[in-house]
Amino acid sequence: MTSFLLPETIVAHDHDVPLDAVVPPIAQTSLFTFRDYDEMLATYRGELARPVYSRGLNPTVRAFEEKLAQLEGAEDACAFGSGMAAISATVLTFAGPGDRIVALESIYPDAYRFFETLCARFGIQVDYVDGSDPDAVEAALPGARLLYLESPTSWVIEAHDVGALAALARRHGVLSVIDNSWATPIFQQPLGLGVDIVLHSASKYLGGHSDVVAGVIAGPKALVTRVRNEALPYLGGKCSPMDGWLLLRGLRTLPLRMKAHQEAAALIADRLAAHPQVTSVAHPSRLATLPPGLTGWSGLMSFAVSERIHIPRFCNALRLFRLGVSWGGHESLVVPAQVVLSQAAPPNAALAFNMDPRSVRIHVGLEGAEPLWADLSAALDAAAAPSQDTARS
Ligand SMILES: *Cc1c(COP(=O)(O)O)cnc(C)c1O
């Protein structure tokens, strides 16, 4: 399709749906039978493209893949049973024993743990660099196989110049991959910035209702086909039909939801920054200018509080923000850095170093900006120790 479509237009319509149903049915089936011997033979010979078994092609999952590819401006997409399945299949398709990967420091903690455990066992070495230092990134690239990016990052919320980093990778013949879960294609289309493969935890904004765990990659057909054929069938982390259907439904409101997250997050970030007990706010809405290619922001941010705020009491006083990991759904969430830093399997050393122990990460959901601010501000009040002067009087 050559005509320019808005994201709103892409997500609204489905094509070739049986019975012209507005909502496509769920192909909730593990296998697809053949009418006769010849049809089976032609399919096995590759002369006929049709579903055989749902670990390979499933029409519901395929409909989601096609829509996501359109949103990312990609030739093709491939969906997985989780974001980590998408990450591991992609990395293991393009890197093998003796290869080196360059990854950014503050990436998603389980991506880091995957690099440090399975990748290390398979003889893949990973070097970590600061994404805000292009010279350091470039110095690490010669001889590398893969540049693994995440921007904006989802724990310390740093936005990098993705186009510049992708250009460095290209100059050194290194394949670039980016985790675009935070921005979604609504606010950042990395392929247009020169990145080779974009991936998502679809469990976050793409699903958008906190009822799906899934992942997806998008990019040029040749690269997506390699992941689809070389890693997905054997690692087996395929997106299920039901989840594909829920993702199609989630996408319908993605452009609307992202605008609502953006608006509420800007208000919350501004109010937090003006609060006397808040010492810093990490959210792209606070930047004087956004990095090139990032056209908006989502609802995930972090902020640090002064010593006067008792963080456990703050978390317990919140009513609308609930304690929980993940993000990207309709609901507002809070995660205190102190808890993350004391977990048994801590995040990578650089991320831990970059995390302010006085900070909390919040996801600004869709409950309405003013009620959410009222909740945060009441909880800050409830958690504030009396000031020195008041205490003495
Ligand atoms: C959640 C998350 C992942 C992993 O996705 P799952 O669907 O939980 O496997 C990857 N990257 C980021 C940035 C995430 O937040």
From TrEMBL:
One GO MF annotation is: transaminase activity
Q: Which cofactor does it need?
A: pyridoxal 5'-phosphate
Q: Say if the entry is tagged with keyword Methyltransferase.
A: no
Q: Does the keyword DNA-binding apply?
A: no
> Which InterPro entries does the protein's record reference?
Cys/Met-Metab_PyrdxlP-dep_enz (IPR000277), PyrdxlP-dep_Trfase (IPR015424), PyrdxlP-dep_Trfase_major (IPR015421), PyrdxlP-dep_Trfase_small (IPR015422)
The protein's UniProt keywords, in alphabetical order, are: Aminotransferase, Pyridoxal phosphate, Transferase
GO annotation terms (biological process): transsulfuration
N6-(pyridoxal phosphate)lysine-modified residues are: 204
What's a GO cellular component annotated to this UniProt protein? cytoplasm
Q: Which Gene3D superfamilies match?
A: Aspartate Aminotransferase, domain 1 (3.90.1150.10), Type I PLP-dependent aspartate aminotransferase-like (Major domain) (3.40.640.10)
> What family name appears in the similarity comment?
Belongs to the trans-sulfuration enzymes family.
Listed name of the protein: Aminotransferase class I/II-fold pyridoxal phosphate-dependent enzyme
Source species of the chain: Pseudooceanicola albus
Q: According to the entry, what is the taxonomic lineage of the organism?
A: Bacteria, Pseudomonadati, Pseudomonadota, Alphaproteobacteria, Rhodobacterales
